[in-house]
Design brief:
This protein has about 160 residues and is mainly beta. The protein has helices at about 15-35, 35-40, and strands at about 50, 60, 65, 75-85, 90-100, 110-125, 130-140, 150-155. It has a 6-stranded antiparallel beta sheet with strand order 3-4-5-6-7-8, with no helix packed on it. Strands 1-2 form a two-stranded antiparallel sheet.
C-alpha cells in the first residue's frame, strides 16, 4: 500500500541511472572516435589576400565590386566566391554595364553573366604586410558588352 492509505499498490521505481549512464558512455565514445577535423573547423587565415575597392578599402569575398570607379557605370554584382586563396580567387556573378545610349546619364544597365578571377597578389604599398590582388580577369559566359572581348584582363591599380 502507498502512504496515502487508499489501498492502491505502488510499484517501486526502477533505477534510471543505468540507462542514462549507458547513453553518456556511448556519447563520450562517439566523441572520441570522431576525427578531430570534423569537430572544429580550421582557423581562417588572419591575413588573407585582399582586393582593394574604389575607396581604398580592403575587401575579402565582396558581393559587389565597382570596376568603373570614376562614374560607377560598370560593376560586378551577385558575386559567389568558389575559392579565395593566397594566389587566386574565383567567383561567378553578373557584370552590370551601362550601355551609355544615347549618353551615359540616359543609358540602361545591362546584365552580363561572368566568371571573375583575381590573381597576381602583391604587397599593398600603403599597408605593410598586406597582400592585394592586382589583376582581374573577366570571362563572359554568354555575350560580352560591345566592344569588349569575351575574355579580358585588367590591372587593378588602386
Amino acid at each position: 500500500m502507498d502512504a496515502s492509505g487508499d489501498g492502491r499498490r505502488v510499484r517501486p521505481a526502477r533505477p534510471r541511472g543505468r540507462k542514462a549512464g549507458l547513453l553518456c558512455a556511448a556519447a563520450a565514445l562517439a566523441a572520441v572516435a570522431a576525427p578531430a577535423a570534423a569537430q572544429a573547423p580550421a582557423p581562417a587565415d588572419p591575413y588573407p589576400v585582399v582586393v582593394v575597392d574604389c575607396f581604398s578599402a580592403a575587401q575579402v569575398q565582396p558581393e559587389e565590386y565597382v570596376l568603373a570607379c570614376g562614374d560607377g557605370n560598370n560593376r560586378l554584382v551577385g558575386l559567389h566566391w568558389d575559392s579565395w586563396g593566397a594566389a587566386t580567387a574565383t567567383a561567378t556573378g553578373t557584370d552590370m554595364v551601362n550601355d551609355c545610349r544615347p549618353y551615359c546619364a540616359a543609358g540602361r544597365f545591362r546584365a552580363y553573366p561572368v566568371t571573375v578571377t583575381l590573381s597576381d597578389p602583391r604587397p599593398w604599398p600603403t599597408h605593410p604586410g598586406v597582400q592585394r590582388f592586382t589583376v582581374i580577369r573577366l570571362l563572359y559566359t554568354h555575350t560580352a558588352p560591345a566592344p569588349v572581348h569575351k575574355d579580358v584582363t585588367y590591372k587593378l591599380v588602386w
